Amino acid sequence: LEDAELLVDKFNLRGILVQELSNLEQMTESLDKLPVPVVKVGDVRGGGNRYVVRCDNRRFGGSAAAYLWNLGFRDFGVIYCGNEDYGQEQRKEGFVEQISRFGGDTDRIWLNRLTEVNLESAITCQVDFLKQQPRPAALFLAMGGRFLRHFLAQLQRNGVEIPRELFVLGVASSDDELDTSLPIATIPFPTRELGSTAAEMLVDLMTRENHSIEPERCISCTSQVHIDPACLVAIRESK
Hints:
Structural class: alpha/beta
Distance between the termini: 59 Å
Order of helices and strands: HEHEEHEHEHEHEEHEEH
Low-confidence stretches: none
Strand content: 15-25%
Shape: elongated
Largest sheet: 6 strands, mixed
Radius of gyration: 20 Å
Number of helices: 8
Mean pLDDT: 84
Strand order of the largest sheet: 5-4-6-7-8-10
């Protein structure tokens, strides 16, 4: 808080935007004491945080489940980070809830909760996956980035053919990070929309002091899925 106060004073700041996508509660309470408006971008467990822009992660997970279900899959797995990353927990919950609405057997969903996202966890995760009987035919990774690459590399080293044996739906943090070299499908996380909405809220707070502004805005995820051509071929061959 002292550092933030010094920045506000030194640079005559009129507002601050904070990104805490996975650990929103760590800074917000103290920063709310600043004499300028503060807007946070992140995932909220409950009330108490003023001026928050968040993603509808439950709907995100539900959209992923609907996409895989409509492709004809019935055996699923979900990999997510449960170590203080509330957004990924919500995506997992939304996925399971949607499968339940479709009448699927949620007890058969393989749920793998990570405490860390690194190469070691990717190796452990693929070992656990290979032990599953039966193995999931479709997998939703509630994250993207390096873990996705590490996990896929470990599977391929152990002879798992992707996408023929395992259809993978991952998360891309933005359109710029969509990796067309991987034989998977990806669903984009609304990073740009979160940022632009937070900027709009901050400007409103700085320029409309006499007007009430809603304390929270929720961004819905697009249902658009980017799919590698190899996935399309595998789907056609399976039908």
